[in-house]
Write a structure and sequence with these properties.
Length: about 290
């Protein structure tokens, strides 16, 4: 009987190395399920109508005739819808670790907002919302933006029919940062530039849509730039642009510049701290309690 020869030994240098894992995607503090996405889509659609109804309602319609009452109606509706979205998101995955992170960031944002209140748009909370949404994702971002505006309104006494609009607009603002491309790959200067550009543009967008919420309230206070329920859409659009230029352009520019400056200067340290806290929190690991 012949004995088969042993297989030739393979030198260690020729053994293929294990594949290097690709950069991991961002760890989401909140996983958006179908119900959460449906709730966000619903509140987004109603929000578009709530902000843009002066351009959607036909001239002389019943809604346009109640220009002074419509913002109150939409404000009450938005409160309910934002509450529904927050409850749906929390039900789908807002665990105790995410709640703790949400509370800390919302309290920090609410404390930052009064620092520049009334001073040429110096609002440092916006850069924190951009960076938080980037690191923690769109679901967490929407909840954080809405809650921060609610807390800051209570802190500064800014409760009124404009508050639900602010909550929704800031929720969109922060959620948009979470939807930016490359959350698990883009780092360094490229990421900072991306966040700075987004913060600059979104700061103007926030001011513009908030102008839509207050513009119909003007009535006959300024006839050349106020909403006219009997005018056609192009005429009202020209009035609205004049209103934005006359009332908020300088404020929005200040907000945008401050957001860019803080993002480029403090962004690396804040992003690093947020990512370190996210890794240590391990949001996707369930919390368990062991008996003695």
């Amino acid at each position: 009987m012949t004995r088969s020869a042993p297989p030739p030994s393979v030198p260690p240098s020729s053994v293929p190395a294990p594949p290097v894992p690709a950069p991991s995607a961002r760890t989401a503090a909140v996983r958006l399920g179908p119900r959460s996405l449906a709730a966000l889509a619903l509140v987004g659609a109603v929000g578009v109508v709530a902000f843009g109804w002066p351009f959607l309602a036909p001239p002389g319609s019943g809604l346009a005739a109640h220009a002074q009452d419509a913002p109150w109606l939409f404000a009450g509706l938005l409160v309910l819808l934002v509450a529904v979205v927050a409850a749906t998101i929390s039900e789908s995955g807002l665990g105790p670790k995410a709640v703790a992170m949400l509370g800390v960031l919302a309290a920090t944002g609410a404390a930052l907002r009064p620092l520049g209140a009334g001073t040429a748009g110096i609002e440092p909370m916006f850069f924190l919302m951009v960076l938080s949404g980037r690191v923690l994702g769109p679901g967490f971002g929407f909840t954080l933006g809405s809650l921060t505006m609610f807390a800051s309104a209570l802190l500064t006494g800014g409760v009124g029919p404009w508050m639900p609009f602010q909550m929704l607009a800031m929720g969109w603002f922060t959620m948009g940062a979470g939807l930016l491309p490359g959350p698990g790959r883009l780092r360094g200067r490229g990421e900072l530039v991306l966040l700075a550009v987004y913060g600059f543009l979104a700061a103007f967008a926030y001011g513009t849509i908030m102008n839509l919420a207050g513009w119909p309230f003007m009535g006959a206070l300024a006839s050349n730039i106020s909403f006219d329920p009997h005018a056609a859409v192009p005429a009202n659009l020209a009035r609205f642009l004049a209103y934005c230029t006359a009332t908020s352009l300088g404020w929005d520019l200040g907000r945008a510049v401050v957001t860019v400056v803080l993002t480029l200067t403090l962004g690396p340290a804040v992003l690093k701290a947020l990512r370190r806290a996210t890794r240590r929190a391990a949001f996707e690991t369930a919390v368990t309690f062991e008996g003695r």
